[in-house]
From TrEMBL:
<dbReference type="InterPro" id="IPR036286">
    <property type="entry name" value="LexA/Signal_pep-like_sf"/>
</dbReference>
<protein>
    <recommendedName>
        <fullName>Signal peptidase I</fullName>
        <ecNumber>3.4.21.89</ecNumber>
    </recommendedName>
</protein>
<dbReference type="InterPro" id="IPR000223">
    <property type="entry name" value="Pept_S26A_signal_pept_1"/>
</dbReference>
<keyword id="KW-0472">Membrane</keyword>
<dbReference type="Pfam" id="PF10502">
    <property type="entry name" value="Peptidase_S26"/>
</dbReference>
<feature type="active site">
    <location>
        <position position="136"/>
    </location>
</feature>
<feature type="region of interest" description="Disordered">
    <location>
        <begin position="1"/>
        <end position="21"/>
    </location>
</feature>
<feature type="transmembrane region" description="Helical">
    <location>
        <begin position="32"/>
        <end position="51"/>
    </location>
</feature>
<dbReference type="InterPro" id="IPR019758">
    <property type="entry name" value="Pept_S26A_signal_pept_1_CS"/>
</dbReference>
<comment type="similarity">
    <text>Belongs to the peptidase S26 family.</text>
</comment>
<keyword id="KW-0645">Protease</keyword>
<dbReference type="GO" id="GO:0006465">
    <property type="term" value="P:signal peptide processing"/>
</dbReference>
<feature type="domain" description="Peptidase S26">
    <location>
        <begin position="252"/>
        <end position="342"/>
    </location>
</feature>
<keyword id="KW-1133">Transmembrane helix</keyword>
<dbReference type="GO" id="GO:0009003">
    <property type="term" value="F:signal peptidase activity"/>
</dbReference>
<dbReference type="InterPro" id="IPR019533">
    <property type="entry name" value="Peptidase_S26"/>
</dbReference>
<feature type="domain" description="Peptidase S26">
    <location>
        <begin position="30"/>
        <end position="247"/>
    </location>
</feature>
Length: 362
């Protein structure tokens, strides 16, 4: 019959349908691939120049930031850095021994005193951007004069501003044959550690909790715990601002280095500036008694090439910070902690719903 299709025509139509189906599938896959590529590039640009996620791994900022908090860090606040290394995006894998020329782009402002800042851990042995991320409070900005007396921080001669999240260790004495309840202390907002002396406890807490516990009938005395000046709590190989060992409850008067500052190097103060001159600003230094040679030139004068910051954790007696390893160079600043977008309580295996989407206030 004339209207009947021949076998060849039917075959050609089936072949055409298969081609059309394959074409539609390829078009669908191409659309998805384009969308995924666009999302990947957009996420990479956002992470590099605008915002980055960060997780709090340690209690050094409690109670301001809790272990298990997930932060959004604003790189725009202080200016994003162009890429420094070549590596696999969204991982810590990078090409060793190869560092890109980089610059810091203009930001919304400078690091201000008491900002909560994410930065690269200065004394890591890696390219700057590949170093571990730390988060602390910038208690000292370039040019500030700091000192710590009996575990109290002073900035430019005045006692440093206090914040509700700042915790310190207090010694609490109770009446004879009375035991202090750890659950009661925890409910008040502190963490109890039993002291070796009977009737005396050490509690990590903020000033407000200390005042509350001071009113308890079983408590006879509450005072700030202070290490004796000169107490060698840590080994002598660690960084020190004073006499070769760390005592984080005492710090002699120290000026936070700033760009353009000229310092006179002596055997007594070289430990303060050694990392700055050699590690962060790339100079070769030799010493012969009280004489210094910098890049082959004999001189005891050095001019600082960039700004530096003094960082401290809000959990003051449970934080390794600038009191232990020195200043943070401006090149190592990543961004400002902006918002807690999620928080996980590992003890209860539950989210901390009251912390979700909380903006971080200095």
């Amino acid at each position: 019959m004339a209207n009947q299709l021949s076998k060849e025509e039917r075959r050609q139509r089936r072949e055409q349908r298969r081609k059309d189906q394959n074409k539609q599938a390829k078009s669908w896959l191409r659309e998805w691939a384009d969308a995924l590529l666009f999302a990947f590039v957009a996420a990479l640009i956002i992470r590099t120049f605008f915002f980055e996620a960060y997780r709090i791994p340690t209690p050094s900022m409690e109670k301001t930031l809790m272990t298990g908090d997930f932060l959004i860090v604003s790189k725009m606040s202080y200016g994003p850095r162009t890429p420094m290394v070549i590596g696999i995006p969204f991982t810590n894998i990078y090409m060793p021994g190869f560092v890109l020329p980089w610059v810091r782009l203009p930001g919304l402002g400078e690091v201000e005193r008491n900002d909560i800042v994410v930065f690269n851990y200065p004394i890591d042995l890696a390219p700057v951007a590949a170093k571990t991320n730390y988060v602390k409070r910038s208690v000292g900005v370039p040019g500030d004069t700091l000192r710590i007396d009996d575990n109290q921080l002073f900035v430019n001669g005045d006692r440093a501003q206090s914040f509700p999240g700042i915790q310190k260790t207090y010694e609490v004495q109770v009446r004879n044959r009375v035991r202090l309840s750890a659950a009661k202390v925890k409910a008040a907002g502190g963490t109890l550690y039993r002291s070796q002396q009977p009737g005396r406890y050490r509690i990590n807490m903020n000033d407000q909790v200390a005042e509350t516990i001071r009113q308890w009938p079983e408590v006879t005395n509450v005072e700030l715990f202070v290490l004796p000046d000169g107490f060698n709590e840590y080994d002598r190989r660690r960084f020190s601002f004073s006499s070769g060992f760390v005592n984080h409850h005492h710090l002699p008067t120290t000026v936070v280095p700033f760009k353009g500052q000229t310092v006179t190097l002596t055997p007594e103060n070289y430990h303060v500036y050694e990392n700055i001159i050699t590690r962060y600003e790339g100079n070769n230094v030799g010493r012969n008694g009280d004489q210094f040679t910098i890049n082959g030139e004999q001189t005891n004068q050095y001019t600082i090439q960039q700004d530096y910051y003094f960082m401290m954790g809000d959990n003051r007696d449970n934080s390794e910070d600038s009191r232990f390893w020195g200043f943070v160079p401006q090149t190592h600043v990543v961004g400002k902690a902006g918002m807690i977008y999620f928080s996980w309580d590992a003890e209860r295996w539950l989210p901390r719903f009251d912390r979700l989407l909380n903006f971080i206030h200095d």
